[in-house]
Design a protein that fits this description.
Layout: H1 3-31, H2 36-62, H3 71-83, H4 103-106, H5 108-131, H6 134-155
């Protein structure tokens, strides 16, 4: 047996093994995909953490603190904002409880545009935090909040009144 035929035989056997394993791996990968309920739970948790981060950033602004102390939180908000559109697949439209309005899926282009504006503003907030410029940081916090609120106004059911 020549070296070339040995390599060819090993390569063919390896390829055959990969092809034989592929359907099993596909099944495993499919089983690892989050369910619509898990996606909703994850996005709700991310919204909650974003609210906490924005609140902590505001507290830092109010006390005249160092914006750099909030750079990590601001980067987290920016990362969430970039991921946000993917957290609203069609499969989650009917999952309850959720405060997501059906208009998200009925006007996905506008929803995605608003999410992109939020992501851009949040990225600028993170850059302002890194710079340490208090005035810029305050202005970018307001702009980020406005883009976040613009989406909530159209695409989120209001929080129920607490009594």
């Amino acid at each position: 047996m020549t070296k070339a035929s040995l390599i060819l035989g090993v390569s063919a056997a390896t390829l055959a093994a990969c092809v034989a394993i592929a359907p099993a791996e596909q099944t495993i990968l499919q089983q690892q995909q989050p369910s619509p309920q898990e996606i909703v739970a994850a996005r709700q948790a991310a919204f909650h953490m974003t609210g906490a981060a924005m609140g902590n950033i505001k507290a830092t602004i109010d006390r005249g603190g160092d914006p750099k102390s909030q750079a990590y939180a601001a980067r987290g908000v920016a990362r969430w904002a970039r991921a946000l559109p993917a957290m609203f697949p069609e499969s989650t439209a009917a999952i309850t409880p959720s405060r997501a309005r059906p208009e998200i899926w009925g006007n996905k282009a506008d929803f995605n545009a608003k999410a992109a504006a939020f992501a851009a503003a949040a990225s600028e907030l993170a850059a302002a935090a890194d710079s340490g410029d208090k005035e810029a940081f305050t202005a970018k916090w307001r702009a980020t909040g406005a883009t976040c609120g613009a989406c909530h106004d159209l695409y989120q059911v209001p929080q129920p009144a607490r009594g």
